[in-house]
Amino acid sequence: MLTRRRTAGLFAAATQSILSLFTAKPAAAADPTEGGSPLRRGKTEPEASHPEPADRPGGITPTPGTTLSDAEYRPAIHFSPRIGFMNDPNGLVHDGTQWHLYYQFDPFAPYAGRVHWGHATSPDLYHWQDQPVAIDQTPAGEAFSGSAVMDAHNTSGLFPQGTGGLVALYTRAAPERQSQYLAWSTDSGLTFTEYAHNPVLDLQLSSFRDPQVFFHAPTQRWIMCVALSRDHQIAFFGSSNLLQWTELSRFGPSGITGVDYECPNLVEVPIEGGKTAWVLFVSINPGAPQGGSATQYFVGTFDGTRFVPESDTTEFVDFAKDFYALQFFTNVPSGNPVSIGWLNNWQYCQETPANSWRGVMSLPRRVSLEPDTTQRLKLIQQPEDLTPLRGTASDATPPSRMDAGSSWETPLPASAAHEVRMSVEIDAQPAGLPPGDKGRSGRFVLNFLNSNEETLSIGFDAFTAQLWLDRGKLKGFSHPFFTNSFSAALTPDQRKITLHIVLDKCSVEVFVNNGQQTGSALLFPATPLDRLRLSATGAGATLSHFELFPLKQTVRAEEGQI
């Protein structure tokens, strides 16, 4: 266990280490000792639907000290920044050798603003290695979200003849203008050179951001989808060389618009049976049904020019509250979609209980489509294979049969992160039950507990076919927008459920019925959750499968938990 003194020492060393990465870069845009970026001093922040306090006159000075919560809430298998503030993933790409995770990053303080592209690399999507900042803030503006692609055939002409490389397209965000810039890399994405004739796309707008770029093989051209944020539209552009862009079409307003559209991604997603469909993901902030920020999606067709949704139905990627700015990797070796989202919400992300860092990425997820009972295609999400991360499975085994009113409890294995997999079927509803909650319910509940009377509850109400996630009895963080509980409607008249749960310090991700529903939530218990209790109420339950694994630390594992 870390002592407070050792924790502070580790943080001080880590802080010095990562600051050296930035000070070694000659193009660094801000001086962290001056209490704010000299590029932004006295000017307003770029237009966005979230506040950027670090951009306001005077800025925000770096936090000089650390707290024990910086280590207590640091996840073990989810990527988080060593210091500073991290929000949207962007520029997700596989370069043929390794995975690149770029992300929106203020390296100077745990608040939004002074946005750079942070960078980490991984051989397997779990073991992430910190890299120096890849794209800096410059006098032209902050480096907002975008994408990275492999220009393998040098369509841009930016690389030596017969070679290719990584190209990043992203938004330069200034107070009065947001336009799309290009930069390219000759060292496998560690550093980038800005194109001399930037911007490559400029509509003279102040709310025009977050380009996603991919190569569309049938039309043999690059496609960009980019948000006209305040107009609630997604614009599609085409290019043969990544440098000159022609508008093709627009989508929207559609779905739930919120205040701003952000972070669009258009992806061809496989359907069970071998077919595919195009899915347009659009993030909104604020104005999501649960409050704050969320990502919705539309299933349809794309002919290389125009996206047409198959219906006007609005679907959301996640039934909880802490999943935003979903982004997909390009150049995936398998050809199947792989995504990562920001596990947070703009309503409270700058106030969560850590003093030197803020921001967590979701687990990497495999994505597909499957028809529901009405034959509408719905998103299926499952985490990338966790098998290599598993320690020895717990030998504690619940009874295969649990009567109504019974419970079973076991300590969680000694680990920072845990995985639970189980299948359970609730008995049919008996006739003649008395009215009232306990008489009518047929519920199966998983409670993660501690001795501090804190509980994270995940439960299934079989007779109404609904699932809940309740973090309201955790005591480490309070905020008026930090909603306590969430629910999801499952397939009607189905009393069987499969659950795949990953609990990692400050987060939980719940994958229901093989990914038909997914819930992602931040957690801040005052003391670690160290026990698991299973309970059946109102009806008996039969467990056909149960596994409990500790998960090995993967992020900065060589440095210990800091």
TrEMBL record:
<feature type="compositionally biased region" description="Basic and acidic residues">
    <location>
        <begin position="42"/>
        <end position="55"/>
    </location>
</feature>
<comment type="similarity">
    <text>Belongs to the glycosyl hydrolase 32 family.</text>
</comment>
<feature type="signal peptide">
    <location>
        <begin position="1"/>
        <end position="29"/>
    </location>
</feature>
<keyword id="KW-0732">Signal</keyword>
<dbReference type="InterPro" id="IPR013320">
    <property type="entry name" value="ConA-like_dom_sf"/>
</dbReference>
<dbReference type="Pfam" id="PF00251">
    <property type="entry name" value="Glyco_hydro_32N"/>
</dbReference>
<dbReference type="InterPro" id="IPR013189">
    <property type="entry name" value="Glyco_hydro_32_C"/>
</dbReference>
<keyword id="KW-0378">Hydrolase</keyword>
<dbReference type="InterPro" id="IPR001362">
    <property type="entry name" value="Glyco_hydro_32"/>
</dbReference>
<feature type="domain" description="Glycosyl hydrolase family 32 C-terminal">
    <location>
        <begin position="415"/>
        <end position="548"/>
    </location>
</feature>
<protein>
    <submittedName>
        <fullName>Levanase</fullName>
    </submittedName>
</protein>
<feature type="region of interest" description="Disordered">
    <location>
        <begin position="381"/>
        <end position="410"/>
    </location>
</feature>
<keyword id="KW-0326">Glycosidase</keyword>
<dbReference type="InterPro" id="IPR023296">
    <property type="entry name" value="Glyco_hydro_beta-prop_sf"/>
</dbReference>
<feature type="region of interest" description="Disordered">
    <location>
        <begin position="26"/>
        <end position="70"/>
    </location>
</feature>
<dbReference type="Pfam" id="PF08244">
    <property type="entry name" value="Glyco_hydro_32C"/>
</dbReference>
<dbReference type="InterPro" id="IPR018053">
    <property type="entry name" value="Glyco_hydro_32_AS"/>
</dbReference>
<dbReference type="InterPro" id="IPR013148">
    <property type="entry name" value="Glyco_hydro_32_N"/>
</dbReference>
<feature type="domain" description="Glycosyl hydrolase family 32 N-terminal">
    <location>
        <begin position="78"/>
        <end position="383"/>
    </location>
</feature>
<feature type="compositionally biased region" description="Low complexity">
    <location>
        <begin position="57"/>
        <end position="67"/>
    </location>
</feature>
